[in-house]
Amino acid sequence: MMFVLALSAYLTGSFGYLGYLIFHQELYHKVGQCFFVLGLAVHTFFLVSGFISSGVMPVENLRATLSFASWAIAVIYLAFNVRYRLMILGAFVAPLVCAIMVLSSLFSGTTTVEPELLKGIWTVVHITAIFLGDGAFVLAACVGIIYLMQERAIKKKHHGFLFRRLPSLEVLDRMGYACVAFGFPMLTFGMIAGFIFAQSVWGRWWNWDPKEVWSVVTWLFYAALIHERLTVGWRGKRAAVMAIIGLVVIIITFGVNFFLMGHHTQFTKF
């Protein structure tokens, strides 16, 4: 029931954000924001109450994992929106959150993992940090898409529908980097927690699990992106394109255990 309420509020918020995109009136954004915050509040209560009652992190199957992923994206979006007030971003992020929620409802809610594997402080830290980090990277990709749209409009001198609603390239570039700068330490911390958890459960820090390997690939990708920005000065279009490519890497990392066996395979069963 709470899942449906959260999805309904998210969906209403999406219509509000889209209304702002179309009519460019702040009232629509305020309505969208209120309902999106309400959706996040209900969603958070749904996840926390489930965690308290079961004692395990809400990623015991693909349905729960996708729901948790949508929650993380919503949290990151609202946190960064407070700082940057990028009002147009809601029209991109809110429908994405709704789509992931709807997708999650299509899968079975049957538990496919041993409950003991989802208990303990290192498990909580590992899963929460990884998902929040990935949520920040998803947001960076959304900002990157908006950046490319705005840059194209400027180059073609086509100051049309979207141009008047989008912020400056400088603001977009700064927010995109802030998302990456937040997501990278979260990913790092989550991976360290995962290594500690693996040592305590399987007696090895590293198991050559496909998701472990691709997590390192993701870490190296964003480490290179941050390094190049700080040393070479990767900004603007190049940084936006790299953020979008990073989203592809994250999707591969998330889905690799659908095709390759490993310790994380049981989390991705239908």
- Count of individual helical segments: 8
Low-confidence stretches: none
Q: Estimate nothing, just give the exact number of structural domains.
A: 1
Shape: globular
| Average pLDDT rating | 88
SSE pattern, N- to C-terminal:
HHHHHHHH
| Beta-strand segment tally | 0
* Beta-strand share of residues: under 5%
Give the CA-CA distance, first to last residue: 21 Å
Helical percent range?
over 70%
Largest sheet: none
**What is the CA-atom radius of gyration, in angstroms?**
19 Å
Structural class: mainly alpha
Map the helices and strands:
Blueprint lengths: L1 H22 L2 H29 L7 H23 L5 H16 L15 H35 L13 H34 L7 H22 L4 H20 L15
Helix pairs in contact: 1-2, 1-4, 2-3, 3-4, 3-5, 5-6, 5-8, 6-7, 6-8, 7-8
Polypeptide structure, described:
The chain has 270 residues and is mainly alpha-helical. It has one domain. The protein has eight helices and no strands. The protein has helices at 2-23, 26-54, 62-84, 90-105, 121-155, 169-202, 210-231, 236-255. Helix 6 (169-202) runs antiparallel to helix 7. It is globular and about 60 Å long.
Summary of the model, kept short:
The protein has 270 residues and is mainly alpha-helical. Helices cover 74% and strands 0% of the residues.
Keywords:
270 residues
